[in-house]
Amino acid sequence: MKHLKWTLALAASLVAGAASAEISDNVVRVGVLNDISGIFQDTNGMGSVEAARMAAEDFNGGGKNIKVEIVYADHQNKADVGNAIARKWLDVEGVDAIVDVPNSAVGLSINTLLRDSRMTFLASSTASSDLTGKACSPNTIQWVNDAWATGNTTAAAMMSRGGKDWYFLTVDYALGKGIEAEAQKYIEGHGGKVLGSSKHPLGTSDFASFLLQAQSSKARVIGLANAGGDTINAVKQAAEFGIQQSGQKLVAFLLFINDIHGMGIKVAQGLQLMEAFYWDMNDDTRAFAKRFAARPGMNGKMPSGNQAGVYASTLAYLNAVAATGSDNAKDAVPEMKKFKGKDKLFGDTTIRQDGRVVHPMYLFEVKKPEESKYPYDYYKLVSTIPADQAFRPLAEGGCELVK
């Protein structure tokens, strides 16, 4: 009788174990949530969807015949729209992880919604540092970039090259304000000065008045704390004003290869920018980029850092699912945080307890037209910021997950 009870108890524990670690609906669904029709459509958009599909194909069932589906939706850069999509994915459509999410307001809203749910948030394009600070969640992994890294590492790199006096053109929402605040803190803490700042709405077409204020400030560096179409418009109009020719340096905190291609290298030449990924860095990045460029609808386009981040984070999540046998965030995310090694696209990589993925960052300068030898040959490396210096120290973020 005792033996029978022990057998039943063992069977019950095995059933419970199987129930706690399993793949829901026998398929892992990853939802790419981004801006498909607005200012981030080139740096994210359908390119991110293709990057996620590439990750699913390369995962190839994880050696366990695990089925993967990639779904996608457009959050229109509106937090309420993004939240509604995520809730439907969570409550109705059986989506297990959300990836990408450019726009910090949308990302922070998704982060709050998914906390303590079964869904994983792979915030590969959400730049708010709060995701690994006061808003950190056990369900969230943040890849590629954030406002602390963007602000601090860019400011440090420019100041080391003589850029002591700054003026900011800043998009008036969480992303821009966060970048400017981080950069200003670093600049003023290291003997520099911020001579002024102009705030502009998301989706601004006319930067003339802002650029005139920046030009008249005589600041050595004009920092563009914005992204996507806003940065492109600002750089184009700065070229018309001859700002860089007059001796002021233009630095973009959050710009991608697609943006340079869109504005043209003649307009962008001399621009300084910080990137986590460049398609032409090494054999691994070039191999990925060549495959990406051949995907449906890409028409030879090279991937942005955000699109590379979608691929890397999706593949890392799927590998964690295979390792644990579960697509539940409480199983997959801790497994992801065990990773420390070389990522093919981002180099030496560690995933910390606060969810921050740590990797090197790079300061590039856009080449002159005569220096570019082939399509998308746009960057020359100025300096490399090692992984241990590129992101906010773990102890300083204030994340309650850090013990």
From TrEMBL:
It holds the Pfam family Peripla_BP_6. Residues 1-21 form the signal peptide. InterPro entries: BCAA_transport, Leu-bd, Peripla_BP_I. Transmembrane segments: none annotated. GO terms for biological process: amino acid transport. Belongs to the leucine-binding protein family. Keywords: Amino-acid transport, Signal, Transport. This is ABC transporter substrate-binding protein. It comes from the Bacteria. Residues 28-367 form the Leucine-binding protein domain. The lineage of its organism: Bacteria, Pseudomonadati, Pseudomonadota, Alphaproteobacteria, Hyphomicrobiales.
